[in-house]
Design brief:
The structure holds two protein chains of two kinds. By secondary structure, chain A is of the alpha/beta class. In chain A, 39% of the residues lie in helices and 27% in strands. Classes of the chains: A alpha/beta, B mainly alpha.
């Protein structure tokens, strides 16, 4: 299978500080791919480069079979095949319905065509009753579900999830994990999950990449990484989490 | 103190008597200030947003110039327009001096930096996540920029309110380029100056009350518009 993302010699610096240094990385499509690592290990920077939100300083990025030249048209075309849910998803001023409609409207879909898509997306995450609720007055869990519905409505080929359950209660987290698995299985969406929640990565991920200090330390299937981690840093990170 | 009380009484009488002369002056005041605000909004909001969002050479310098012009003295604005419109000026041939158009030009010069500067500030205050959310949902750069402007609308309304407050109360520029000509360029503020000079203190206070009522009505209108835009926003609750 052709990889969805292919990164070669990627370096990203903020000022003098090098935050990411990745030699070679290929991410296969239609899987749940977790990026693990402690705070400041470069997980979010890596995800932002793949999501075409942050430019790499050196190296090449290939996304959905295209070498990235950061041209306006290419960015728009590729970004429209991907979307993102972050840990405190930003909601535009307005209703939940209007927020979900946003991505469809910028694609110039008509109001008539938008309505059934939104209704279906809301139904999939059990949020049908919230269509006309103010998006900024939702609880943490509801907000994340609305964000997932907003992503679902766009039928993306790639869904980036940056700590999607970091600020919500365990019950809602379980629900959201269920939706993540559902989206991956039902629609074949490639899911890039950035997390430092080991248990979540273990439950969801087909493949896992472990980052440490901006560098790729280890990668493999979830089972490999969690049961037979080769690198000392991975093992200590895994142990630390287990202790806590 | 007696003069003030007498003035307030006369002022209220003026308001309720619907004096023809005062009505004319009031309507012209509103026409001039609202036209100037509209033009300043049409030019200043896009310019402010562009200054905030576009990474271009000299942007910081341009912003500093705009911020400096936010404090432009009205008389100086009037002088600039006067020099441009006077018969020897570059636009002298159009014979606009001492017309309401000249007054609108002077007021645009005053309002534009306020609208532009405050719009730039409020747009710059938006967080990166607004842009990121828009583009990750498939917005083009232009659509994402529009989303940021939409999210900044509370601040933009505040910018317009501030500008309008300055325009309605402004006297120096309109006096210089309008000339305070009866039935032609006389507005509320220049009427106050005239009546005071003529010793009609109570009438001047009366016109002042009308000016205040107009300002109050505009603020109420803006508040209604704000509430319509942010009907579910409870604001900050301090307990």
């Amino acid at each position: 299978m052709t990889p969805v993302f292919k990164l070669h010699n990627i370096i990203k610096r903020y000022g003098q500080r090098e935050v990411l240094n990745i030699g070679e990385l290929s991410i296969p499509g239609q899987k749940i791919y977790a990026i693990l690592g402690p705070n400041g290990s470069g997980k979010t920077t890596l995800m932002r480069i793949m999501a075409l939100l942050t430019k790499n300083d050196t190296g090449t990025v290939r996304v959905l079979n295209e070498d990235i030249n950061w041209g306006k048209e290419q960015l728009l075309k590729l970004r429209r095949q991907m979307t993102m849910v972050t840990q405190t998803s930003f909601m535009f001023e307005g209703t939940v319905y209007a927020n979900i409609a946003y991505g469809l409207k910028v694609r110039r879909k008509s109001d008539k065509n938008i309505r059934p898509i939104i209704e279906k997306s809301l139904e999939l995450v059990g949020m049908s009753a919230f269509a006309s609720a103010d998006a900024r007055n939702l609880s943490g869990g509801e907000r994340q579900k609305a964000a997932i519905a907003r992503a679902l409505a766009l039928e993306p080929r790639v869904l980036f999830l940056d700590e999607p359950t970091a600020n919500i209660d365990p019950q809602s987290a379980v629900e959201i994990e269920r939706y993540i698995q559902f989206i991956n299985r039902e629609f074949g969406t490639t899911i890039i999950l950035v997390t430092h929640n080991l248990f979540q990565a273990r439950r969801l991920a087909d493949e896992v990449l472990f980052l440490w200090d901006g560098k790729m330390v280890e990668k493999g299937t979830g089972k490999d990484l969690f049961e037979n981690a080769k690198d000392q840093r991975t093992r200590s990170f895994l142990c630390g989490e287990t202790v806590f | 103190m007696e003069i003030i009380i007498q003035g307030i009484k006369e002022g209220l009488l003026l308001v309720f008597s619907m004096d023809q002369q005062i009505m004319k002056v009031t309507i012209l005041s509103l026409q001039v200030s609202l036209s100037a605000l509209l033009i300043a909004a049409c030019l200043g909001i896009p310019a402010g947003a562009a200054l905030a969002l576009k990474d271009m050479p000299g942007r910081r310098l341009l912003l500093n110039i705009v911020y400096t012009f936010m404090g432009l003295p009205p008389v100086l604005a009037g002088l600039i327009v006067y020099l441009a419109l006077t018969t020897r000026g570059p636009l002298g041939q159009y014979q606009l001096l001492f017309t309401p158009i000249a007054m609108i030009c002077a007021q645009v010069l005053l309002a534009l930096p306020i609208v532009c500067g405050l719009t730039a500030r409020t747009v710059m205050a938006q967080r990166q996540e607004v842009y990121d959310t828009a583009v990750t949902l498939g917005a083009s750069r232009r659509q994402a920029a529009w989303a940021i402007i939409r999210e900044s609308r509370m601040g933009i309304i505040a910018a317009l309110t501030t500008a309008l407050g300055r325009l309605v109360a402004e006297v120096g520029a309109v006096m210089l380029v309008g000339g305070n000509i009866q039935d032609s360029t006389r507005v509320l503020t220049t009427s106050i100056v005239l009546e005071t000079r003529m010793g009609n203190d109570s009438r001047a206070i009366g016109i002042g009350i009308i000016l205040l009522l107009i300002a109050f009505a505009i603020i109420v209108l803006i508040n209604i518009l704000e509430k319509r835009s942010f009907k579910n926003d409870a604001g900050i609750q301090i307990t």
